[in-house]
């Protein structure tokens, strides 16, 4: 398995979308422009997905940052920057 800072943006995108699509409450197709509201996720489901993504990438995303991440693309950008900083 690659270390976090060896991941390409494509790898991050694939893994983030996979984690989200694997979540039982997500029934729609996930795109980079998807948001929690467009995926009809409540706050508890969103927290579960964020925790799964944190586990997937061995990251801790502060709550204040999570509140600013509106789309899947913004989440991927955050993860990409955070893994490069490791």
Descriptive overview:
- This protein is mostly helical.
- It has one domain (4-84): ACP-like (Non-ribosomal Peptide Synthetase Peptidyl Carrier Protein, Chain A).
- Helices cover 56% and strands 0% of the residues.
- It has helices spanning 9-22, 43-57, 63-68, 72-84.
- Helix 1 (9-22) crosses helix 4 (72-84).
- It starts with 8 loop residues before the first helix and ends with a helix.
- The mean pLDDT is 89.
CATH H level, superfamily name: ACP-like
The computed structural class is mainly alpha
* Strand portion: under 5%
User: How many individual helices?
Assistant: 4
CATH architecture: Orthogonal Bundle
| Number of β-strand runs | 0
The gyration radius over C-alpha positions equals 12 Å
Mean pLDDT score, rounded?
89
Cα-to-Cα separation, first versus last residue:
16 Å
Low-confidence stretches: none
Shape by Cα distribution = globular
Order of helices and strands: HHHH
Return the CATH topology: Non-ribosomal Peptide Synthetase Peptidyl Carrier Protein, Chain A
Largest sheet: none
**Amount of helix:** 55-70%
Report the top-level CATH class: Mainly Alpha
How many domains, in number, for the residues? Answer: 1
Q: Which SSEs are present, and which pair or pack?
A:
Blueprint: H1 9-22, H2 43-57, H3 63-68, H4 72-84
Helix pairs in contact: 1-2, 1-4
């Amino acid at each position: 398995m690659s270390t976090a800072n060896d991941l390409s943006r494509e790898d991050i995108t694939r893994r983030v979308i996979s984690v989200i699509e694997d979540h039982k409450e997500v029934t729609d197709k996930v795109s980079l422009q998807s948001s929690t509201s467009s995926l009809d996720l409540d706050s508890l489901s969103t927290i579960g997905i964020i925790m799964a993504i944190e586990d997937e990438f061995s990251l801790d995303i502060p709550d204040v940052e999570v509140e600013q991440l509106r789309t899947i693309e913004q989440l991927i950008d955050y993860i990409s920057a955070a893994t490069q900083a490791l």
